[in-house]
Predict the structure.
Amino acid sequence: HRDKLAKYPINLICFYSKAIHEKLYHDALNNIPDLWEFRNSIIELSDANKNKTPLEDISLKPFSSLGGLNYHSKEEEIIRLSEYIENVRNDELKSNILGQLGRLEFDLGRYNTALKYLEKSLKIQEEIGDKAGEGATLNNISQIYKAQGDYDTALKYLEKSLKIQEEIGNKAGEGTTLNNISQIYKVRGDYDTALKYLEKSLTIQEEIGDKAGEGTTLNNISQIYRAQGDYDTALKYLEKSLTIQEEIGDKAGEGTTLNNIATIYKARGDYDTALKYLEKSLKIQEEIGDKASEGTTLNNISQIYDAQGDYDTALKYLEKSLKIQEEIGDKAGLCATYFNIAHIYFKNNQKKKASQYWIKTYKIADEIKNAQALKALENLAKTFKIQNNRK
């Protein structure tokens, strides 16, 4: 849950004696390198009576997979990690950094480059027998294929990951992987199988006390019922998820759940209530600096105004969403926003502008192999073809 924790404004100060500095440094890098991903700097406290600067900033700069919340900071982190890895001789550390580079590239929508880094990381993990790392990397690789719409390959990697996690007794990883497998079946429309995997995941998370995972799984279960039109049951699961997230202080999860609750009310035609939940979600996302989710929520707010026929306000929210997504390099988000902007222009009989934004949607969707956006464009083309044939 490192990435979730990193979104919260937590200030942590650790004090340790100078005598264990070297041991702490090397042990942290070799055994728990993620510890360093939270650090801003290391300060050495010295005796003020000696001829030495009382506070000395030691620039260790090992590595970090977080890379900030915007496009440019992630790019800078990729450059820094790429330079840093050149001098790394420890295989476990090298595989870790390659994995982080893969995740950063994934965040920027560069799936082919992300895949290359993750495959290199996986190869090292297999060579040194790092089963835990191998399971996590197989899981991450699966998400690239899922984003590209290659669900069969994604499922193969997830099944490999699950097998390893069961072998080594990694219950937390097992719960996460079962959850990810469920999402493959969900996108295929096989809701019964998706629900079975989610229930298995939930059982594990309840057993090991993984409250954050439990909140996520309850949220995902709600989306199965929502897709089937059972809004009452979906809402019950979302309320359970929200209660847990509020209890454990999972602000990012809370923002997502409020967003999903809003979609239930929107589907029911209760736009005022939907808007209230979206505004609550947006407030949280702004507070914690969750830019990607903020862009999504602004997009969702636009759809409320769109449904009410207030196209000018809808367009304003879409432009805000667009600005954030361009800033952080959220290409999947850009697809959705361009698509929705095109619809607004089309409804306003500005067909030329609508076409321009649909073309923009297609170019990005084709570049990152975004199956959902490409399917939406395909359905749109079929609709227009049918309408033209009727004329």
About this structure: The two ends are 55 Å apart (CA to CA). The beta strands are 42-45, 55-58. Residues 1-10, 17-66 have pLDDT under 50 and may be disordered.
